[in-house]
Amino acid sequence: MKIGIIGGSGVYDPNLLQESKQIKIHTPFGPTSDLVTTGKIEGIEVVIIPRHGSKHTINPTNVNYRANIWAMKELKVTHILAPSAVGSLREEYKPGDLVFTSQFIDRTTKRKSTFYEGNQVVHIGTADPTCPEIRDLLAIEAEKLGFSFHKEGTCVTIEGPRFSTRAESKAFQMWGGDIIGMTMVPECVLAREAEICYSTIAMVTDYDVWKEGEEVSNEKVLKTMSENLENVKKLLIITIKAIAKLNRNCSCKNALQGALM
């Protein structure tokens, strides 16, 4: 097993790794978000890409998702853990909670969501877009650590970089959204095309703006994130060790079977 981490806001930390080095990966889709860091966690090979760049200079729309996932595939990554910050659309999904997202509703409009743009078409299955094996492990390990988490949840993925209006936030609730973020799509779809197991570690930072009196600000998001970063890092390390013992019986590794036209 080889584990990838695509780190969201504040999560990128090359110090997680031993024997770390930074490399440049050339892809058919252009450059990755930043240099790729490779190394090990207790002997397990790990690859890290900072989603928004190491200094958070890339907005969600402009992230080169295809290059990032292609680089992971090129480096023979089998599993991706994807921490990110999200807002809550439900009272019970509290700031500070972790969500191992099981579904998404795609509200993006400007992003490339497939590697196949030539003479071949792929209709990839995304009925269950994240890997159930990783979500099971995340839930087991989060419970051991005593963290507040949700094993499932539907993420409304918006284009960004702006936050939602109150009307949008309330509409997303009516659609069945539990959390709202800006990066799950097309990242998880491309991981499925690459036959890489993928799961989010979504950190709830706020109640979005559906809740009376709530406002979303960068200050509030960053404050809640900073309070939870060490928990996320602990969860990453313990889950990576658990993934390394898997037999990988999920269907993610065969996602292209029957999808190619």
Structural write-up:
- The protein is α/β, with parallel strands linked by helices and 261 residues long.
- 26% of the residues lie in helices and 23% in strands.
- It has five helices and eleven strands; from the N terminus they run ββββαβββαββαβαβα.
- Strands 1, 2, 3, 4, 5, 6, 7, 8, 9, 10 and 11 form an eleven-stranded mixed sheet that branches.
- Helix 1 (65-74) packs parallel to helix 4 and helix 2 crosses helix 5 (218-243).
Tags for this model:
261 residues, alpha/beta, 11-stranded mixed sheet, 5 helices, 11 strands
Layout of secondary structure:
Layout: E1 3-7, E2 18-23, E3 36-41, E4 44-50, H1 65-74, E5 79-88, E6 98-99, E7 103-107, H2 132-145, E8 149-150, E9 154-158, H3 166-174, E10 179-181, H4 184-193, E11 197-206, H5 218-243
Helix pairs in contact: 1-4, 2-5
Give a nutshell description of this structure.
The protein has 261 residues and is of the alpha/beta class. 26% of the residues lie in helices and 23% in strands. The radius of gyration is 17 Å and the shape is globular.
Q: List low-pLDDT spans.
A: none
What share of the residues does DSSP label as strand, in percent?
15-25%
Instruction: Give the number of helices.
Output: 5
Largest sheet: 11 strands, mixed
Count the strands?
A: 11
Overall helicity: 25-40%
Mean pLDDT: 93
Structural class: alpha/beta
Order of helices and strands: EEEEHEEEHEEHEHEH
Q: What distance lies between the first and last C-alpha atoms, to the nearest angstrom?
A: 30 Å
Radius of gyration: 17 Å
Globular, elongated, flat, extended or rod-shaped: what is the shape?
globular
